[in-house]
Design brief:
Number of helices: 11
Oligomer: single chain
Distance between the termini: 38 Å
Number of strands: 18
Helix content: 25-40%
Structural class: alpha/beta
Length: about 475
C-alpha cells in the first residue's frame, strides 16, 4: 500500500482549512464534467478544453504528443539483483494495449553506492530496460524514486551516505509507512539534502551522469529528478503552508540546479518537476519558475481516502478541486502537464467504474498524458493480473488516442459504450509534419478518414494518418 488510513486521515485533517470547498451533493456537476458513459468533445490548440492556457507537450517535429502509460519499477531488489523484476514483457504488453509511455523507477542508492562511485553494472541494467522500451516504441521518463528518503530508513532512494539526521529520532511505522515522512529524522534529512552544498553538488552530479549516459537513447523523453519530494515542517505550520514553503524555497532551487546539470550534457529531453504530494488534496503548489525551455509539471493524482482502500465519493468534488488547483501552475508558467502517478488501491469498489471514467475525462482536459501506478502482474495497485488481463475497471484506461498529432485539434471524443473515437483537426501547413499517429487498444479497429487525408498504414495497435497541408481532417475509429 502507498499509504494507510491513519496517514490519510491525518493529511486530510491538516489540509481541511485550506482545501477547496467540495461540491454539495445536490449541486449539478460543473460544465465540462464527464458524462458517466461517453467522453465529451474537447477543443483547443492542444485538444484540451483549456488547451490555450496549458501548453501541449511536443516532439522534435512540432507534433502534439499524448503520453499514456504506467510506472514500471522494482523496489524489492538491490545491488546485483537490482531491476531484475523488470522484463521486456512489461513493455511488450503495455504497447499491445495501446500504451506508449513508461515512468521507469531508478534509485540513487543503487547508482552511487558510495560517494563518487557510480555503478556501471546498474547503468547497463537501466540501458537494457531502455532498449526493451525502444524496441516496443514506448517512451520513457527516468524517475529518481524515493520512498521515506532512502535506505537509512529501510526504504529506497537517497543513499545512506547522503542522509543526515542530526541525531534526531526515527520510529518505524510498518503498518503506516507514509506517516514515517513526519518522523523528525526523515524531515531533517530532507532539509540537509536541499540545503547542504556538498549534497546539492552530489545530487546534481548524479543527474549529470544519468543524462550524459542516456541523453540520446531513442526511448528517453525526459527525467523526473525526485519522486514525491517532502520536507521539514516548522513550528506552527499546517501541512499545506509547509508544502508551499518547501516547494518555493527548497524545491524550486533544487530543480534549477538539476536542470542546469542536465543541460550541460543534454539539451534534447524534457525535465519533469513534481510538487509535494499535498497537491493531491486540491492544494495549489508553491513551486516557482524553473528557467529552462523544456519543463513539464508532473504532479501526482491521489486521494487520501481512496489511498486507504476506500471508495470514490462522486459528491465530494475531489476531482474538480484537484483539476482547479493543479492547472494554476502550468497556466501561469506556460508549461505542459503530465501526471506522474495515479490510480486507487481498491479499484473494485462500487463507485470505481465512475471514478475511472471521470478521472480519464479530467486528465484529458488539461494534461498531455499520465502514468498510472503501476504496470505489474498481481493484486493491489497492479494494472493486470497474473495472466495479463486487466484488473477490474483498469480496462477503462485503454482507449484510442492521437499519440502524435501533426496539426491543431478541433475536437476529440471517445464514446466508451459505442466503442467509437472521433478526432477532428486542422493539418499543419506546407512546412509542418505530415503524419499523425494513432494508438489503439488491443482489438479489431476500423479507421476511416475524411478531408484531404488517408490512412497511410495500419498495424496492430497503431494507425498512421497522412494529411494534405492545411487540410481539415476528420478521423473516426470504431471497434468492430
Amino acid at each position: 500500500m502507498r499509504t494507510t488510513l491513519a496517514a490519510a486521515v491525518a493529511v486530510a485533517a491538516l489540509l481541511a482549512p485550506t482545501a477547496a470547498q467540495a461540491r454539495p451533493a445536490d449541486q449539478d456537476p460543473p460544465a465540462g464534467t464527464a458524462h458517466p458513459v461517453a467522453r465529451g468533445a474537447v477543443t483547443g490548440a492542444s485538444g484540451r478544453a483549456n488547451g490555450a492556457d496549458v501548453p501541449a507537450l511536443t516532439d522534435s517535429r512540432g507534433r502534439t504528443l499524448t503520453l499514456r502509460g504506467w510506472n514500471v519499477g522494482d523496489k524489492a531488489h538491490r545491488g546485483d539483483a537490482a531491476l531484475s523484476a523488470i522484463t521486456e514483457k512489461h513493455f511488450r504488453d503495455m504497447r499491445a494495449q495501446g500504451f506508449n509511455f513508461a515512468r521507469v523507477l531508478v534509485f540513487w542508492d543503487d547508482l552511487e553506492p558510495s560517494p563518487g562511485r557510480y555503478s556501471q553494472a546498474y547503468l547497463h541494467k537501466v540501458e537494457r530496460i531502455l532498449d526493451w522500451a525502444a524496441r516496443h516504441d514506448v517512451k520513457v521518463v527516468l524517475d529518481a524514486h524515493q520512498d521515506v528518503f532512502g535506505p537509512a530508513f529501510d526504504h529506497r532512494g537517497i543513499p545512506a551516505w547522503a542522509t543526515r539526521t542530526d541525531g534526531l529520532p526515527f520510529t518505524p511505522h510498518p503498518d503506516d509507512w507514509f506517516s514515517e515522512y513526519f518522523e523528525p529524522a526523515v524531515q531533517r534529512a530532507f532539509t540537509h539534502l536541499y540545503e547542504d552544498e556538498d549534497l546539492q553538488r552530489a545530487q546534481a552530479r548524479m543527474w549529470r551522469v544519468l543524462a550524459d549516459r542516456f541523453a540520446r537513447h531513442p526511448a528517453v523523453i525526459g527525467y523526473d529528478p525526485i519522486n514525491e519530494p517532502m520536507g521539514e515542517l516548522r513550528g506552527g505550520e499546517d501541512l499545506a503552508t509547509a508544502a508551499r514553503r518547501i516547494e518555493r524555497d527548497q524545491l524550486t532551487p533544487m530543480y534549477q540546479r538539476i536542470a542546469d546539470a542536465i543541460r550541460s550534457v543534454d539539451d534534447r529531453n524534457w525535465i519533469f518537476v513534481e510538487p509535494t504530494p499535498i497537491v493531491g488534496e486540491g492544494v495549489p503548489t508553491g513551486l516557482g519558475r524553473i528557467d529552462d525551455p523544456k519543463i513539464v509539471y508532473a504532479p501526482h493524482f491521489y486521494n487520501g481516502a481512496m489511498e486507504a482502500g476506500g471508495d470514490y465519493d462522486p459528491d465530494a468534488g475531489w476531482i474538480e478541486n484537484y483539476e482547479q488547483a493543479v492547472t494554476l501552475y502550468p497556466k501561469e508558467h506556460k508549461v505542459p502537464v503530465v501526471v506522474g502517478e495515479w490510480g486507487p488501491l481498491n479499484n473494485a469498489q462500487p463507485n470505481m467504474n465512475r471514478f475511472y471514467r471521470e478521472a480519464m475525462a479530467s486528465l484529458g482536459r488539461y494534461s498531455s498524458g499520465w502514468a498510472g501506478w503501476e504496470w505489474c502482474y498481481g493484486g493491489g495497485y497492479c494494472a493486470v493480473d497474473g495472466t495479463g488481463a486487466f484488473r477490474t475497471n483498469k480496462e477503462l484506461t485503454a482507449e484510442p488516442y492521437a499519440e502524435a498529432l501533426a496539426g491543431t485539434v478541433r475536437s476529440a471524443s471517445y464514446d466508451l459504450e459505442a466503442g467509437t473515437y472521433r478526432l477532428s483537426y486542422d493539418a499543419t501547413g506546407l512546412r509542418g509534419a505530415r503524419v499523425t499517429e494513432l494508438s489503439l487498444p488491443a482489438g479489431d479497429w476500423h479507421v476511416k478518414v475524411r478531408g484531404g487525408a488517408l490512412v497511410l498504414r495500419k498495424g496492430p495497435g497503431r494507425a498512421w494518418i497522412l494529411a494534405a497541408p492545411n487540410a481539415r481532417v476528420t478521423v473516426t475509429v470504431t471497434r468492430r
